[in-house]
Amino acid sequence: MKQRIDKINYYLNIAETVAQRSTCLRKKSGTVIVNKDEIVSTGYSGAPRGRENCIDLGFCSKKKFFPDVRHAGYDACRSVHAEMNAIISSSRKDMMGGTLYLVQYRTDSGEYEENPGCCQMCRKLIINSGIQRVIVRDTSDIGYKIIEVDEWIKNDDLLNGKITY
């Protein structure tokens, strides 16, 4: 008899499907916010409404202006991150105590992002949204890591000089 998929991978699989709408040439990202076992909102990375997406332009503006920088140059990036799009599509009262599921994979290889996570700006938005935990797919064999948002608050890496991504 075939077993049902567990709830965490169920929501991560939905986030992975959402990521397929991402318009970034470098990385596909998809997010699902869930509270009380109900999907509150989804989001994927892409240019702000009405602006041209990188897939339509045929180049990545971040890579063009910051070719050797992996975790910086966000001002040159055309995309609104998946986490941001999901958060702005929901009310805070619906996110309070919820879980954000995140899947990121490289467009060049199709491999899941190595050491996936949220940038500092997304962390700040997640903290203020009231989301309680972030679950990120980190391997292709249905693996994931669970991040308690309280840990981002307690271990403020912007103050201790140990910025992590």
State the main characteristics:
globular, Cytidine Deaminase, domain 2, single chain, 8 helices, alpha+beta, five-stranded mixed β-sheet, 165 residues
Give your account of this protein's structure.
The protein is α+β, with helices and mostly antiparallel strands and 165 residues long. The protein has a single domain, classed as Cytidine Deaminase, domain 2, CATH 3.40.140.10. The chain is 32% helix and 22% strand. It is built from eight helices and five strands, in the order αββααααβαββαα. The protein has helices spanning 7-19, 54-57, 61-65, 82-88, 92-95, 120-129, 149-154, 157-160, and strands spanning 27-35, 38-44, 99-106, 133-139, 143-148. Strands 2-1-3-4-5 form a five-stranded mixed beta sheet. A hairpin with a 3-residue loop joins strand 4 (133-139) and strand 5 (143-148). It is globular, with a radius of gyration of 16 Å. The chain starts with 6 loop residues before the first helix and ends in a 5-residue tail after the last helix. The relative contact order is 0.17.
